[in-house]
Each structure stands twice: as C-alpha cells, then as structure tokens.
Amino acid sequence: MTLHIKNARVLTMGGPGAKRGKAMGDIGVIESADVRIENGTIISVTPTNWRSSAVFRRSTWMGYSADRPEIDANGRVLMPAFVDCHTHACFAGDRLNEWDMKLKGAAYLDILKAGGGIMSTVRAVRAASKGDLATDFAWSQHYFERGGTLHFEVKSGYGLSTADELKMLRAAWEVTRKVPMEPRITPTALLGHAIDPDVPAFAAPTINETLPAVHAEFLGMAVVAFCEKAAWSPAACVGLSGRAKPLDPQTGATATSSHRWAW
C-alpha cells in the first residue's frame, strides 16, 4: 500500500552519523515537502516546490487513488518517532516526596542518606508482585506510544537481589512479548545500580549469582552498570564486565555511566 503525505513541515534529522554539540541544533528542516511511503517504508521526501519538475512528475508523483490515499498535513510537522535509550519504566511506588525535598535544596546524596532515592523504589519493587510490575509497565508503554516514542529501552535495577531482578525482567519481558510491532521495547539488565547497605560486599553476589542467573534465562540481554560514588565503583563495574563478557561475548559487555569517578 502506498501513502502520500503532502504539504508537511518535515524534520529529517539527516546528517552524516551521530551529531554532537552545536550540530544537534540542525534537525534538517524542509519547510514544505511531500512524503511517499510504501508498505511502511519511506520511499521519498521531496520539497513541494519540486512538483513543477518534469523529472519529478515522471518518476515520483503518481497521483492519488483509493489504493494510494492522501493526507494533507497543511503545514503540520512530520518527524521520526522518538527513541528513548534510557528509561526505568518498570518499577513500583513513587518518590513524590523527594521532589519536595529537591525544591527545598536537598542534594541527591542527602535524599539517599535519608532513606530515599533508589533504595525507596527498591523497597517498593521488592514488595510488588510480577503481575503488579507488568500491569503498571503496560500502562507506561501506552503513554510512551501516545507521546510519540516508538522504541525505548527499559532497565531493571530496582531489585538488588537475584530473585527481584529476575522478577523485574520477567515483568518487562512479559509486556514486551505482548505489544505489537510498535512501540519496540528493549529490556536491559541494570545489575550494577545501587548498593544494598544490608548486604556486605554487595557487588560480589551480584556478579557471581545474579549475573549468571540473568544470563541463563535471558540469553543475549545487555548488562549495564551505574558508576557513581553512591553506587558502583569503577572496580566493581570492571568486575561485572569481566564476568559478563565470557558468558556472552556479543552482548555481555557492560556499559557504564560515570559522573564523578576518574577511570
């Protein structure tokens, strides 16, 4: 099936490779263009003022019929869907009180010391069932779609134990298998997230017990860690990565987010 969208203000996001810095401000705007789509694939994006071209008339503009419907955008924006590469959409509880603390000047480490932050959500996740997590995540998935996000990653990381990390990943995977082609969901095992203060040498059981259990049930799933003073140290992240790579050399490497640590 062919679809034509005409008179659209198109944001192409075009350019050679990934953009950084000031280049991110160039979103490839075509003020008025016609877009041709065949069987879900964009075939052409043509500036409206090219319609008078004889070459354009012969090669691209086929006119409209019942099997080639037309949408007149009337100058509205037409753009690619959003891709969100970092979400924690599978969780339980809320931390609205922390927003009030932040407004009063509290830093994240202050909130963490007061029993909030990641550990607040960890307690809620541990108390929730897999069904509860899956139900709430399914609702979140609908909001992503309504907001224009058609591919997003969802992390675990709020279980901080083998059983609870597996529970989160099972809930996320259950929803992922049920949704149609879009939005696409990519579950990720955030095994190196926070440090459970009640578990001595917390990184060791995560690396030696939780990681192999996740690998056994979710072969090929990416494993990531959060490198931060209040979270995992560089040494712990390297240890997780070193154990993950032999399990699955293709996807087991650990990506880390480092803010204050110097490697």
Detailed description of the structure:
Pathway: Amino-acid degradation. It comes from Limnofasciculus baicalensis BBK-W-15. Keywords: Histidine metabolism, Hydrolase, Iron, Metal-binding, Zinc. GO terms for molecular function: imidazolonepropionase activity; metal ion binding. This protein is an alpha/beta fold. It has helices at residues 54-59, 96-103, 108-113, 118-127, 130-146, 162-178, 203-217, 234-247; strands at 2-11, 29-38, 41-47, 70-72, 77-78, 82-84, 149-155, 184-192, 223-227, 254-258. Strands 1, 2, 3, 4 and 5 form a 5-stranded mixed β-sheet that branches. A 5-stranded parallel β-sheet has the order 6-7-8-9-10. The longest helix has 17 residues, at 130-146. The protein is elongated and about 70 Å long. The relative contact order is 0.10. The model is unreliable at 54-62 and 258-263 (pLDDT under 50).
Q: What is the strand tally?
A: 10
Could you tell me the mean pLDDT?
85
| Shape descriptor | elongated
Q: Would you identify the regions where 5 or more consecutive residues have pLDDT less than 50? A: 54-62, 258-263
CATH architecture tag of the largest domain: Alpha-Beta Barrel
